[in-house]
């Protein structure tokens, strides 16, 4: 009987590269996968492998993530359209990425504490095709946000999340409303009120989704909430009835789940808050069942 065993190292490039290797982040590809064999190394040098770059790594990684990030961007040969960064990034690195990636469509910065508002503004000026910008724990003032909006006329999706425990973490709704009229998707966080929501509705008339789960101190009046639900297809909001509990829930979840990014903690905390009003909540790819009697939350992160 013929040996029907197939050498999986000899899979077609489109399967090995597009379906398998691209499931790894950039560090895993550069420090591990490309060193397996010559065939994998050849695939890992293909610019098509680097249209999407995931540098979402632990800060305690032993590798020089800045150097690896530049290497990944270089391999894209100007074809980069999507990048996620969760490293000790600086304005210099962000400037390098922007100069080499004029086709960039999506930029996600997670906890890049050394990025300044000025550095971010200078970077987006070189990204004429930017449609999605996600900022997690990035320190930007209202003037920075407004400048970003003015320099990104095609911006359709904007996410800005801050630490729940920061009661002064205003998302500068007026800056968003004044400078991002083309927005379709908005996820703010921090201190919000009814006037700021009205400003967003007036300044961003094309909104299709508005996620207010991170705005833990927000208490919408009934008429405004009704207006949001009528105008916006995907509207997420938790009534502020356990505002003092939110910070404690945040750190409890962090301890219970282990290695979890702060942005994920914020999202899950929002679900737990909503659970006090509903026994079952479903949002996007996360399912959560809350049992009021036992006060225990069962979190199911779906694939």
Automatic annotation (TrEMBL):
SUPFAM superfamilies: F-box domain (SSF81383), RNI-like (SSF52047)
Residue ranges of every copy of the F-box domain listed in the record: 8-51
Superkingdom of origin: Eukaryota
Name of the protein this chain belongs to: F-box domain-containing protein
Pfam families to which the protein is assigned, alphabetical: F-box
CDD domains associated with the record: F-box_AtSKIP19-like (cd22164)
């Amino acid at each position: 009987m013929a040996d029907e065993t197939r050498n999986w190292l000899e899979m077609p490039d489109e399967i090995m590269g597009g379906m398998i290797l691209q499931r790894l982040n950039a560090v895993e590809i550069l420090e591990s996968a490309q060193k397996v064999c010559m065939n994998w190394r050849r695939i890992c040098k293909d610019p098509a492998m680097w249209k999407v770059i995931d540098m979402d790594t632990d800060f305690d990684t032993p590798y020089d993530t800045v150097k690896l990030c530049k290497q990944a961007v270089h391999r894209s040969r100007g074809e980069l359209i999507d990048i996620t960064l969760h490293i000790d990034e600086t304005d210099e690195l962000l400037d390098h990425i922007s100069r080499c990636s004029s086709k960039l469509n999506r930029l996600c910065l997670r906890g890049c504490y050394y990025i300044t508002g000025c550095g971010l503004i200078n970077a987006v000026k070189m990204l004429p095709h930017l449609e999605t910008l996600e900022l997690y724990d990035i320190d930007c003032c209202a003037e920075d946000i407004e400048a970003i909006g003015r320099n990104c006329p095609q911006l359709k999706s904007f996410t800005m999340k801050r630490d729940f425990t920061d009661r002064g973490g205003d998302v500068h709704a007026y800056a968003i409303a004044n400078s991002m009229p083309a927005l379709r998707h908005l996820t703010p966080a921090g201190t919000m009120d009814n006037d700021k929501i009205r400003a967003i509705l007036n300044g961003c008339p094309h909104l299709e989704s508005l996620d207010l789960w991170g705005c833990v101190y927000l208490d919408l009046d009934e008429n405004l909430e009704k207006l949001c639900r009528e105008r916006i297809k995907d509207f997420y909001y938790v009534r502020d009835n356990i505002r003092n509990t939110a910070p404690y829930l945040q750190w409890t979840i962090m301890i219970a789940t282990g290695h979890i990014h702060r942005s994920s903690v914020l999202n899950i905390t929002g679900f737990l808050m909503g659970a006090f009003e509903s026994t079952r909540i479903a949002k996007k790819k996360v399912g959560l069942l809350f049992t009021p009697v036992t006060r225990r939350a069962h979190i199911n992160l779906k694939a």
